[in-house]
Design a protein that fits this description.
The structure is a single chain. The chain is mainly α. It has one domain (10-215): Four Helix Bundle (Hemerythrin (Met), subunit A), CATH 1.20.120.1760. 79% of the residues lie in helices and 0% in strands. It has seven helices and no strands. The protein has helices at 10-29, 34-53, 57-80, 86-120, 127-153, 165-177, 184-226. Helix 1 (10-29) crosses helix 3, helix 3 (57-80) packs antiparallel against helix 6 and helix 5 runs parallel beside helix 7 (184-226). The radius of gyration is 21 Å and the shape is globular.
Length: 230
């Protein structure tokens, strides 16, 4: 049995879609190129990464959500305007990966800087652990995407997972925004993403293994039924 996504439930996704419907319709009516929306979202992600590096956490988190909104909208616009292309899909996925890399670098810079300042003052804290968690989370995000791409290249579907890109964006962005109340919210969000992003990669490998095993069992069953009894 395939485990379902447990973080952004379908009802929550529908609510988000309803909220973005006016924006999507605006872009559709003006027949904007969805690749332009993808590029704009990517550029906003770079600004967010820079702000993370400058320790402007709340603003960086807000811009990360805005960039994620463009990533959500571009696919809807592409399908609605009949502009779905293989290049567009590749372009979107490529910029998504680069966005995550830049965001991670911004977070790394912030937490390494915090680590150095805290050690100099003789007050070490969770900054170094969080920096490691950022690196682990980036590895998990890349492997989550790689396993899906490799599986689909082998002709198999692989879209399951606890922590896919939308969840990663929401967790990190929300954690950054809520540092307004307490700085540990981002630390917790990063650690959660680091753990579940890697579990998602493992889950996808397991899902492919189970799918292939089931297909093999079905093939053997059909073959045995088709062979005449002696």
């Amino acid at each position: 049995m395939k485990l379902q996504n447990v973080f952004l439930w379908r009802w929550a996704q529908n609510i988000v879609l309803m909220g973005f419907a006016p924006i999507i319709n605006f872009f559709i009516k003006r027949k904007l190129n969805p690749n332009h929306l993808t590029t704009l979202g990517f550029l906003i992600s770079i600004v967010a990464a820079f702000l993370f590096a400058k320790s402007k956490l709340q603003l960086a988190g807000f811009l990360m959500l805005v960039a994620g909104a463009f990533d959500f909208v571009d696919g809807k616009v592409a399908r609605a305007t009949n502009r779905v292309t293989k290049f567009g899909a590749l372009y979107d996925s490529t910029l998504d990966r680069y966005s995550e890399v830049f965001i991670s670098f911004g977070l790394l810079y912030h937490y390494i800087k915090q680590t150095m300042l805290n050690w100099e003052s003789g007050n070490p804290d969770l900054s170094i652990i969080t920096a490691v968690a950022v690196s682990v989370g980036l590895g998990g995000a890349i492997m989550t995407s790689y396993v899906r791409a490799r599986a689909e290249g082998l002709g198999m579907q692989c879209k399951v997972g606890f922590m896919q890109r939308p969840e990663r964006v929401v967790f990190i962005a929300a954690g950054a925004v809520f540092t307004y109340f307490h700085e540990l919210t981002l630390v917790v969000a990063i650690i959660v993403v680091a753990v579940f992003a890697n579990l998602t990669a493992i889950q996808r490998v397991y899902d492919v293994w189970i799918s292939e095993k089931d297909n093999a069992d079905q093939f053997i069953s059909v073959k045995n039924k088709s062979e005449p009894e002696l």
